[in-house]
Amino acid sequence: MSKYILKNGIITNSDGFAPGDLTVKNGRICGNGQNGVICDLGASSFVYPALINTHDHLRGNYLPRVGPQNGVFYLNWLPWDNDLKASPCYAERSRALDMEKGYLLSAYKTLFSGIITVNDHFPHEFNKNILPTLPIRAIQNYAIAHEASSYELKWGGPITEEHDIAKKNNWPFITHLAEGFDDESMNSLANLEKTGVLSRHCLFVHCIAFSDEDIKKCAAAGASISWCGASNMFMFNTTCKIKKFIDAGVNVTIGTDSSHTGAFNLLEEIKYDRELYRKMFGEDLNAKLIFKMITKNAAKALWVGDCTGELKTGYNADILVLKAQKDDAYENLAAASSKDIELLIYEGKAIYGEERFIALLGGSLPENYTMLKVNGRSMFVTGDPAALYRHIRKATGIKKILDFLPFEPEEQD
Description:
The protein has two domains: 3-50 and 309-382, Urease, subunit C, domain 1, CATH 2.30.40; 52-301, TIM Barrel, CATH 3.20.20.140. By secondary structure, the chain is of the alpha/beta class. Helices cover 31% and strands 24% of the residues. The radius of gyration is 21 Å and the shape is globular. The chain has helices at 77-85, 88-96, 99-111, 124-127, 159-169, 183-186, 188-194, 212-221, 229-236, 242-248, 266-281, 287-293, 296-301, 329-334, 385-396; strands spanning 3-13, 16-25, 28-30, 37-40, 45-49, 51-56, 115-120, 137-138, 143-147, 173-177, 202-206, 224-227, 251-254, 319-323, 341-346, 349-354, 369-374, 377-382. The longest helix has 16 residues, at 266-281. The strands form three sheets. Strands 1, 2, 3, 4, 5, 14, 15, 16, 17 and 18 form a ten-stranded mixed sheet that branches. The protein has a five-stranded parallel sheet with strand order 9-10-11-12-13. A three-stranded parallel sheet has the order 6-7-8.
């Protein structure tokens, strides 16, 4: 649909929230208009920029988690990788899902938590043909390394060349960093700095072993970090010095990591991280800051802040509508779960929503959409995630439960 108006919503951006209307035309947010289909939100819904996840591995979303045994946590990521690849879960995932279906499953994990934009931390030769086929936006313009260590996986070209590509093209350079406590992890930022790789293009994931001096250098360079608190605690029983990153003015974002170690989805991740912050520092992580971490800050870190992450005229109409259960928009988002999503829009196209929003699809369900029951509500969705769920159960021979899919697929004859 080329033009419509979300009327009587509570429009939320990083500078505040207020009652108002949001007009969408040709996939973008535009000024107020009188023409077009009107969907009245009845002043009972918050309208947000769609969420952004700065760290996931879209081939790696499956359950159960795979982690340390007998309470002995990992020194770095490598023994976890060995445990994963030797696990029954990994073997089951490989039987149940080929590459394309694995990516599609992750796209639905993304969609059902209100995310439109995600970073898939894998090299381009691995995902370049799949990402454009997904129903959400997995960014394709990025430079990459796995990690700055002697035992890293060889993703992308030499780190200095990848960083140069990022600078030339105004892309992010994304790498895990300091994911552990061995000598190389403890000195990872210093080693990167010696090669000239430390700039505002850098998005560092985890940063568990960063020293106070590392944090200052990260802030001075204008680099960003992706905080994955649930994954860090599961694998290492600790996380980065997140308060010091925030206080230093680092551009902090939040990532889920894959569900093999992280939270089920981003909405669960932010609740977990907020409680973790409270336990670590005896104070609340400000809900407005959480909102920025998964919208404006995240868009900046991925170098897409000129087109998404805020509800601004001319920006992509990437929109999340949540049921208003709290008076404060930021607290409402921080407490939300998948069952609170009313509508999700990708560049003006409604890809998931309550049945009442079918008017945005032209008044009837398009051929490539299906209906689901989510928490008792009839919801439309692009594609057929229920068929994918049934495929997984047939392939595994069990009634597999994947908690990031918020529905039970109806059985078919």
